[in-house]
Design brief:
heterotrimer; A mainly alpha (302); B alpha+beta (364); C mainly alpha (262); A: 302 residues; mainly alpha; MetI-like fold; 73% helix; C: 262 residues; globular
Chain lengths: 302, 364, 262
């Protein structure tokens, strides 16, 4: 059973493995390769470093021609440095905001009567099924200076002048919180709902008040969910393109957006690739952390 | 195949997982029509041994023979051995009937024969009214019977039972024990039971192998294993037992009677017991006596007995268990029959004695 | 005390779900607005839906998206199910950690990274970009989600059922077909629906991997949304939301009726 596997088991393993190797792993190698090329006004717009069909001698020659020009231009260009920093900052702030919104909700969901919980979970996941693009687009009409939010606030007499939110980093953060809320809700809900209800009762029995019950028992036991949820929001948010593009302003800098512009508008593929490699390198620690927390949660010791 | 071959022969089998040796140079035979039990604490390797017989694990060394033929190369689905899983492993997407028919369909048995066999199994396990239910619509006891019927349907040469009663409550467990024995007698096939519950093994099996750390500590008929434990460990694992420290007074060869003195009865006359292993004078041994074989009397100074004080009494309905502290500090357990036990009080001085025929000398 | 806390919890839930659903609800409501102004209510009218039908490009894009979603979800489901079985049932194998990481990474990987890297792969392989490149890209993304859904189901099922099947005479392949797959089937169907909607909704990866003549619906919506809010976009968005909602309802009903039948 361990040494030799049946053909059906081989197939089940090899098909997805090969697919991912070609369509997930290999592309990264190519991105790295192109990031080391010179940009050129051609189609595709770069000079290939080496032809992998050419054989080992040509490969070595190709390696000699590796160019770090793209990385140099990244380092020289303040736009990139600012984009990276601003992306990390925006994603981190938005992650904290998402946690602040999601935790009370997840807690209330987990402590709701048992017959309500499946309904609440379904309600929390359902927005995930609607198009991301549409959900972000929906906020344009709400946040614009003459949008629904300002209309409502002025009509209620709460403000006299329209709030200027649309086209700022605030709008981007609202967009991230809104779009990624389900990703935070689910792990938090699972982490809280999984807790044995008698733990809190035991704490109460031993003299802990509601505040102590929460901070000493419920919250520490949900930290795994907090970490998983935070990573599920933070990692994709760093590379977000649609939200800054639709809700942000001209001074909103996010690396996903800068890359996109470099790639589609400036057609500088080596620089866009180098930017991707650096972004991936930045995201590797949180990705590894996510992988570890996921493995701790799902993999049984074998 | 010759008629002298046992059904299953496990021959010097060894199995390691990483650095842990689960089964260590183990050999045993299971006869035709025998009800055999592997008894041991969790982690002793009994489940690994069973899984090797079923074909889910491969021995690192040694052979497993079925009717004299090595079955190492036979995958699990071609072995005439079926297993009742501890978790029952019922197929959740099939009803009771389909679960039972599954193995027969794999044999490409004609439809009519399958239907007949399924009916027979349903009758045997009294599941007829539930034949269209799914596993999640059954109680624990019903699921257990489906698992049994499913494994029996193929008429395996050997049925492996992995902790078959562990998930049942106490009362159901006892009923099921009798049912299992009755079913086996009716079908006349060999059963191998794996359990950590000595009562279960005692009640059902013809022969028991007591396993410890991958090896067999003792193997023999159920009564013999109970009455004549081979080692202190086996004695302690199977049932309650008192191990009185004693010293051999002279050399004796195996099978000979040997005089020895109990540490807690220094003034009493030496007792004479038969031992299995040779003893030297002065060797420390244990004299093992089951609580039900310890007679308990009040006071009675002077009699040849172990004197002590009652420290605790537990009423058990038909008997009263008394814990008696002896001068060495050893606390012995004795069962006093209902009437005798009820008048005892804590702190009372009592006297324990036993028939030498019910005692056993353990050198190791 | 308890009553006070209960009230607090319900208000949190209500506020949270209003936050989640109000933007979508407003978008749907304003798609029926007679006025072209997207923030002023001018009465009920289905005019923007009628206008959609005349928008040739939008209708073409919708059909491309549906075809891409249908085909890519088939690949995603087959591959994702295999990956889930490998991870949940095959125990340890060489390269398991890498495999598990590759199956999980696309769930969190920023889409721009996946889109860009896939595009560069297709360019390097000289593959003409269009329908099939989007299908391949979406299948890769979708299989990971399918794998998560199916794996969760399989891990909830007793690990010894396949052993029981083999013990009863099923070969490993038969155990897979007759026991593992039927048990996983509800989650496999759910995985298909998920992969289908993910493909239908995806904009970023499709933008990288599409070619001339294979503009998908979200790409069309995006190019219009960049120009500002318009009631036509509200209408097409509502159609997309309605389509996915209908799909989910059909799926849920089919599941419920299957359950009732058994």
């Amino acid at each position: 059973m361990i040494s030799h596997r049946a053909w059906s088991e081989r197939l089940v393993l090899i098909a997805p493995y090969a697919w991912l190797a070609v369509l997930f792993l290999a592309p990264f190698a190519i991105v790295i390769k192109i990031s080391l090329s010179q940009s050129a006004l051609a189609l595709p717009p770069y000079t290939p470093v080496f032809d992998w069909r050419a054989g080992p001698d040509a490969w070595i020659a190709g390696v000699r021609e590796f160019s770090f020009a793209a990385y140099a231009s990244l380092a020289e260009d303040a736009l990139y440095l600012d984009s990276y920093l601003s992306s990390l900052r925006l994603a981190a702030t938005a992650t904290v905001l998402t946690l602040l919104v999601a935790y009370p909700m997840a807690y209330a969901m987990a402590r709701a009567p048992a017959r309500w919980r499946p309904v609440l979970v379904t309600l929390a996941i359902a927005p995930f099924w609607t198009s991301f693009l549409i959900r972000v687009y929906a906020w344009i009409a709400i946040l614009k200076d003459e949008g629904l939010l300002n209309h409502a606030l002025i009509a209620l007499g709460l403000i006299a002048e329209p709030l200027h939110v649309f086209g700022t980093d605030w709008a981007v953060q609202i967009g991230i919180v809104y779009s990624y809320l389900p990703f935070m809700l689910l792990p938090l809900y699972n982490a809280i709902a999984r807790q044995d209800a008698s733990l809190v009762e035991a704490a109460a029995d031993l003299g802990a008040g509601p505040v102590a019950q929460f901070w000493k028992i419920t919250f520490p036991l949900s930290l795994g969910g907090v970490l998983a949820g935070a990573l599920l929001v933070f990692i994709p948010a760093v590379g977000e393109f649609v939200i800054p593009d639709l809700l942000g302003g001209s001074d909103t800098l996010m690396i996903g957006h800068t890359m996109w512009t470099e790639f589609f508008d400036n057609r500088d593929w080596p620089t866009a690739s180098a930017a991707t490699v650096v972004l991936l390198a930045l995201l590797l620690p949180p990705l590894a952390l996510y992988d570890r927390s996921r493995r701790r949660a799902t993999e049984q010791p074998t | 195949m010759s008629s002298s071959d046992p059904l299953i022969r496990v021959d010097s089998v060894r199995k390691r997982f990483g650095g842990v040796t689960a089964v260590d140079d183990l050999s045993l035979d299971i006869g035709h029509g025998e009800f055999f039990a592997l008894l041991g604490p969790s982690g002793c390797g009994k489940t690994t041994l069973m899984r090797m017989i079923a074909g889910f694990e491969t021995p690192d060394e040694g052979r497993i023979l079925l009717d004299g033929e090595d079955i190492a190369a036979t995958p699990p689905h071609r072995r005439p051995v079926n297993m009742m899983f501890q978790s029952y492993a019922l197929f959740p997407h099939m009803n009771v009937e389909r679960n039972i028919a599954f193995g027969l369909e794999r044999e490409r048995m004609p439809r009519a024969d399958i239907a007949a066999r399924v009916d027979e199994m349903l009758r045997l396990t009294q599941l007829e009214p539930l034949r269209r239910r799914r596993p999640d619509q059954l109680s624990g006891g019903q699921r257990q019977r489906v698992a049994l019927a499913r494994a029996l349907a193929k008429r395996p040469r050997l049925l492996l039972l992995d902790e078959p009663l562990a998930a049942l409550d106490r009362k159901l467990r006892e009923e099921t024990q009798f049912e299992l024995m009755e079913i086996r007698r009716g079908l006349g096939m060999s059963f191998m039971l794996v359990t950590h519950d000595q009562n279960e093994a005692m009640a059902m099996a013809d022969r028991i192998a007591v396993m410890r750390e991958g090896r067999i500590e003792q193997m023999g008929p159920a009564r013999e294993v109970y009455r004549m434990p081979a080692t202190r460990w086996a004695a302690g694992f199977i049932g309650e037992i008192n191990l009185f420290e004693a010293i051999a007074l002279r050399d004796a060869s195996a099978g000979q009677a040997c005089d020895m003195r109990l540490r807690d009865a220094p003034e009493a006359a030496p007792i004479s017991l038969t031992c299995d292993a040779p003893l030297r004078a002065g060797q420390e041994v244990a004299v093992a006596v089951r609580p039900e074989n310890l007679a308990l009397r009040r006071g009675a100074p002077g009699a040849a007995c172990l004197r002590g004080d009652v420290v605790e009494l537990a009423f058990r309905g038909d008997t009263t268990l008394a814990r008696v502290r002896l001068p060495s500090g050893f606390v012995a357990r004795a069962n006093a029959p209902g009437a005798g036990g009820e008048s005892l009080t804590r702190g009372e001085a009592v006297c324990l004695s036993f028939d030498v025929a019910a005692a056993r000398v353990l050198a190791s | 005390m308890t009553r006070g806390r209960g009230f607090f919890r319900w208000s949190v839930l209500v506020a949270g779900f209003v936050f989640l659903y109000a933007p979508i609800a407003l978008l749907v409501i304003y798609s029926f607005n007679a006025s072209r102004l997207v923030t002023v209510w001018g009465g009920f009218s289905p005019r923007w839906y009628i206008a959609l039908l005349d928008d040739r490009q939008m209708v073409d894009a919708a059909f491309i998206s549906l075809r891409v979603a249908f085909v890519s979800a088939l690949f995603a489901t087959a591959l994702g199910t295999c990956a889930a079985i490998a991870l949940a049932r095959l125990g340890s194998f060489r390269g398991r950690a890498l495999f598990a990481a590759m199956v999980m990474a696309p769930l969190v990987m920023p889409e721009v990274i996946m889109g860009l890297s896939l595009l560069l792969l297709f360019v390097a392989l000289d593959a003409p970009r269009g329908f099939w490149t989007i299908v391949l890209a979406h299948a890769t993304m979708g299989m990971c989600f399918v794998a998560v859904v199916v794996r969760e189901r399989l891990e909830g099922v007793d690990r010894s059922i396949e052993e029981a099947a083999m013990d009863l005479g099923a070969s490993p392949a038969q155990a897979l077909l007759r026991v593992t797959l039927p048990i996983a089937m509800p989650s496999i169907l759910a995985g298909y629906v998920l992969a289908f909607t993910l493909s239908l909704d995806d904009f970023v990866i499709a933008s990288f991997t599409s070619g001339p003549g294979s503009t998908t619906l979200p790409m069309r919506v995006y190019s219009q949304a960049r120009l500002g809010v318009s009631p036509e976009i509200n209408a097409i968005s509502t159609v997309m939301i309605g389509f996915v909602a209908a799909l989910l309802c059909v799926h849920a009903l089919a599941r419920a009726s299957r359950r009732a039948r058994d």
